[in-house]
Amino acid sequence: MEDSELIINSSKDDETPHIFKDTSTSALEDQLEEDQLRRKLKFFFMNPCEKFRARGRKPWKLGLQILKIAMVTIQLVMFGLSNQMVVIFKEENTVTFKHLFLKGYVDKIDDTYAVYTQADVYDHISFAIDRYLQLHNLSVGNHDYERKGSDMTAMTVCQQFYKKGSIYPGNDTFDIDPHIVTDCFDIEPWEPLHNGALSESKLNMNISFHRLLTVQLLFKLKAINLQTVRHHELPDCYEFSLSITFDNKAHSGKIKIYLENEAIIRECEEWHVSGSLQRNTHYMMIFDTFIILVCLSSLILCTRSVVNGIRLQYEFVHFFLYCYNKHVTWTDRTEFLNGWYIVIIITDILTIIGSILKMEIQVKSFTSYDVCSILLGTSTMLVWVGVIRYLGFFQKYNLLILTLRAAFPNVIRFCCCAAMIYLGYCFCGWIVLGPYHVKFRSLNMVAECLFSLVNGDDMFETFAAMQEKSHLVWLFSRLYLYSFISLFIYMVLSLFIALITDTYDTIKHYQQDGFPETELHAFMSQCTDLPNSGRYRLEEDDQPVQMLCCCKQSDGLEDNLWT
What we know:
- The chain starts with a helix and ends with a helix.
- With 563 residues, the protein is an alpha+beta fold.
- Strands 1, 2, 5, 6, 7, 8 and 9 form a seven-stranded antiparallel β-sheet that branches. The protein has a two-stranded antiparallel sheet with strand order 3-4.
- It is flat.
- The model is unreliable at 1-21, 195-202 and 538-563 (pLDDT under 50).
- It has three domains: 26-47 and 395-563, no CATH class; 60-83 and 277-391; 102-266, no CATH class.
- It contains 18 helices and nine strands.
């Protein structure tokens, strides 16, 4: 009777069974969603080999990176050999110009060149001008004057001097107008000069040395680098902007002479090279184009992976907040942003831009080797650094990257504190020791000198080069150097090494006993399906019964729900 009443009541009022049915279905769907998210997270953090076993998905990114490493390295080596010829050509031309236009020039390590008498100044200026006019009869290279149409450009001679000045050192008096006046005139290449002193020549150049600041000889020459033909490359046409400066700004009785050469590579207007040079250039263009396509494919794949990681992060954060009412920590959120993919994306962008510039250089429509070399050099460096990522898949090889990642925050904080002390020593050494020590003349030189001392380099030379003109400064220099070396080598550097060593020991201990488990990894660890279990292939399937059993505990829960 009670059973029949229960059936009748159930038939009359359907609310209770419907409520129970909706509750059990909702719980089942939540459990399915949680299991699916665990499986999705575990698949996301697998390495390429595990993903291949899990879904049979081929590791395209891994294959592209291996191919890219080989191709980018070959490209860099070939460009480096080409760039080396450019550098050698520029340097050798600069040395040639110094021997051609500087009287009595001798190659020296410090490259100091100066005159001390008025007659020597006139003589050296006359010598440089005369050599310029006789360029075709002197140079053994293919140098020529710059031409504008059918006319050759002239040499410009400029004086810079104070507008007015009367100086009487014997009486300790002077009257000076500091405004600088520049006086220039041109010398045409076909215009011969009278041999002899410059003051006696047709230029009639009189120099007021007590007001003189500089004398500059400005001219341009052109040349063609033919050595590239032997390496199956199109020759470059060079424009050399030369300036010979007689520097008297110090008025110390020593007029320093500088020759500066600024080389600009330009596209040759008319050229013809017989043989297989053109075919070789086409092969190089095809090779660079293929590299661009490989890097573009890698860029698309890695960008897609980064976007998928960010989407999965938002999904995990929303799930944790909805189901557990907890906020995901920043450390767990950064796990989804793979830093190696960011490095690869930067590498691909640099390689694509550098390859395009390299192709422009090969066809001589772009001539900036420096920009191209920076892009290709940086990209190749990052490509080889990225190899560490794939070594990190093996536990015995990932110790370096784990140590660097764990120690990085503490190292940055430690370096910021040490930098304050280092900068204090830099400013102090520059202002106190600069007038008495050649290595402390500028703030940049002070920083380089102190960094060398930290690494144990040039210690004796730094002590010995200190002038003893002032006993007080000499004693201060000893206190300054001894305190800096003791503080940074025995304390700061030792603490820095200890910081890295402590992190290394911690990581090594974690590898033996297990790493601390974050909420993200604890959530994923409940999914015990192996990559080759076949369950990851059903991740996108809509059959809930087949996808339910992500975790071993889910079987009992499923029975309870359906019961």
